[in-house]
DNA sequence: CTTGACTCCCAAAACGTTTTGGAGAATCCT
DNA sequence: AGGATTCTCCAAAACGTTTTGGGAGTCAAG
């Protein structure tokens, strides 16, 4: 309600003194400090955020860009993540603003608007591409940022990512150990880093086992994309006995394809993300997920450290992938 | 990058003129206006947001509080809603900041922080209670806001809500028409408006049919809460042949309870929310959902109109509930 | 008595924008 | 020609805070 000026006037003090008293500076006597604090409390005084931001040259805001593409947002608990991140940031005086991409605008323009308008102190990027123009822009501007997912940018930048390569490699090896020899991969769009690295993991495992990595089909990272890609693999003369899918959403689409094809129910399948609904599919969907808890807080910590100026190399987290054992990966290795 | 002052200097104009030229005022000649615009474009000039906000006495921000309680956030597409809302707001120069509730703090304190610190021009509230202290606070401060869900506040306020009463009443009547006579209700916490009004809808239908509304059990709005509540109803001497559940999450918990009880698979069930995973349960969960598309944009529009000063009475949307026909409501009306 | 250190306070500047209230020149009307 | 009107432009104020650079006053040491 009140103003610093009004508060000072009512106390017979200068604006300076009141401001410094509230900030706990030592050059105001303990008695005055207490008096000021009480008055501020009683008046319900809160400093005007815009004024402080202008003066301190800090926006006290962090933006997260939400991709509007199909395929939703990757992680299932994305909102929880955002919420955790915002909560952690708030403890340090930062608020999280969400920056959706309006129709007809690029994510780059959003970044530009936020950064050049001094609207934010840092940014959080999700769904990175292998070559990500947002990353390049932010690096050129020198503004702190953290990505969810790596990129192939030559300059290092802070990120949190799951080790998709290792996860998909070991999932493939698991199928091989179970006797599978025709292991297919349902890949996401290869411009996305996560999709590419998952495919590389599958491919590496295949080659390690002396198998040709040719049963691969790419689709949109959606239920429909997985469905189409699976159908294509099932049309092959020698169709796969097991499928490693880039995402759970795609895996669920693939399950639908399997149901529509003779003997399809005999094909093993595994996804990635641990979507809640995976527990309800038939068969229940085996999957993988990134380890680590309270991811939101991790993002927030990295953002704060990036703002504090820590070098990017110290702000990179690669999390292990863990296997979620349900039932869909347990089909016999030999197709009908 | 650049400053209004620097830009003016480089053009040999005053700050005033540059500012007015960019804002398209008529008291700067077309030639100058164009010259300024070009220079601004070339310099990549964006007005400093904090400065403008301070001067215009507007925060250009809207906050949405995220409840941290169990039971998640009600609607399944909540993130999509937020995204749509943010996108629509952005078209009018407003950004959406998310305000999670830190542990140990009340939602009221959050509101206070945002409102009294002049951090926002308006607020968006979700998960209203019948008597909601946030609503009372915001009304007392006279700051514009819109709620997702009604309240029992004596003074009207803008809201968007589904007509839970009608939805649950007609779901109950549908069961009655199908021959059911023992229709139970799994209720959410009655302090929430949505939970209360849904129970009232069920109760009204029961009384219309001349049935006693005694098969009701309340639980937390979670899978576990629904499970527990269902078990309690199933322990009754004369157990229900159909269940109307306050939320899909609770309904899924109830389904689990039904599986664990002899003859439980014969009991009909319906939920509310249209969670994606409802399509995958067995049996697939019949449910209801609020009609209306691009809810986020509706919220944004209401917020903008509230900020513009329209009276609350004109800013209330009650949406019809539509039935989503899957399979779980089609069990025989007579229990084993 | 002078000096220096210390304590407590304050006036003024600064942050970058928008807006107010004109000023000077040109144009129009009579 | 004289006055009114229009067209361009600008200096200065304002928004509310934080920070800079002291300024009195007190006290102890020299």
From TrEMBL, chains A, B:
Record flagged with keyword Aminoacyl-tRNA synthetase: no
Alphabetical UniProt keywords: DNA-binding, Transcription, Transcription regulation
Domain of life: Bacteria
HTH lacI-type domain mapped to chain residues: 2-56
Cleaved signal peptide residues: none
Gene3D superfamilies on file: 3.40.50.2300, lambda repressor-like DNA-binding domains (1.10.260.40)
Database matches in InterPro entries: HTH_LacI, LacI/GalR-like_sensor, Lambda_DNA-bd_dom_sf, Peripla_BP_I
Pfam assignment, any one: LacI
UniProt key word DNA-binding: yes
Listed GO MF terms: DNA-binding transcription factor activity; transcription cis-regulatory region binding
CDD domains given in the database record: HTH_LacI, PBP1_AglR-like
Alphabetical list of PANTHER family matching this protein: LACI-RELATED TRANSCRIPTIONAL REPRESSOR (PTHR30146), LACTOSE OPERON REPRESSOR (PTHR30146:SF153)
Annotated protein name in UniProt: Transcriptional regulator, LacI family
Native source organism of the sequence: Xaviernesmea oryzae
